[in-house]
Amino acid sequence: MRDTTPGPHQGQPLVQAGTAVEDAHAALILVHGRGASARSIIQFGRQVAPTEFVLLAPQAADNEWYPQSFLAPVEQNEPGRRSGLQAIDDAVETARAASIPTERIALAGFSQGACLVSEYVARNPDRYGGLAVLSGGLLGETVDPADYQGALDGTPVFLGCSDIDPHIPEQRVHATAAVFESLDAAVDTRIYDGMAHTVNDDELDAVAAMLADLD
After folding, report:
1. Are 177 and 159 in contact (CB under 8 A)?
2. Partner of 95 for a Cys bridge, out of 100, 123, 201, 215, CB 3.0 to 4.6 A?
3. What share of the chain is helix, strand, coil (3-state, %, to 5)?
4. 193/196 Cα distance (integer angstroms)
5. Nearest-CA neighbor of 117 among 93, 87, 146?
6. pLDDT of the residue at 90
């Protein structure tokens, strides 16, 4: 999905941590939420990724990937949405350019970042090392599985969210899971009773286990 049109997030830094990309055996692409930063989500990556991973986190301009709710019509979140997807693609290409195969590239995001990273993987199907969607779901006013074509060839996909999250309706989490199932992903959906808009220990353990399989 290479896009040469400049957007608000192009020219922002790609924060790197963990093993140097040229020495890494696997990569974890991390996408932060609204109001957070690439450096903050790198700390999450350090908690869940084996030491042999390179951690790559794109930075959103003004710490916001797109202006409206992820449930808004797609055009209301442009050009931020498109530019954010390109920033993720640039991070994936950084790993690939270092000879890390796609099946050893995992992606994870929280909140606004989870929405964006789920959209990226669903619209760029391949056999990835894994996908973690933490308090998020596919973008748009509605989700139509017919809009997503291709195969993820068994890519492990983890979705975790609260049943009362003020930003993420539980129904959208299930609709997102259904799309990934239709794309032949191995989907693990966990809804947590009464949890705040955060990441809990069970989610940390689930993502760490998914990444350990790539170690």
Report:
1. yes
2. 100
3. 35, 20, 45
4. 9
5. 87
6. 97
- Residue 135, helix vs strand vs coil: coil
- Please enumerate in sequence order all residues whose Cβ is within 8 A of that of 213, keeping only pairs 6 or more positions apart, or say none: 130, 156
What is the amino acid identity at position 201? D
DSSP 13-75: -EEEEES-TTT-SEEEEEE--TT--HHHHHHHHHHHS-TTEEEEEE--GGG-S-SS-TTS-GG
Asked whether the whole model's pTM tops 0.90, one would answer: yes
Copy the structure tokens of residue 20. 């140097």
Q: What is the DSSP letter of 166?
A: S
Type of residue numbered 22: E
pLDDT averaged per 10 residues in sequence order, the chain, 215 residues: 74 97 97 98 97 97 98 97 98 98 98 98 98 98 94 98 98 98 98 98 98 89
* Residue 126: predicted pLDDT: 98
Residue where the block lists tokens 């993987």: 121
Q: In which residue are the tokens 């989500």 written?
A: 41
Is residue 109 within 8 A of residue 31, CB to CB? The reply is yes
> How many other β-carbons are positioned within 10 Å of the β-carbon of residue 205?
11
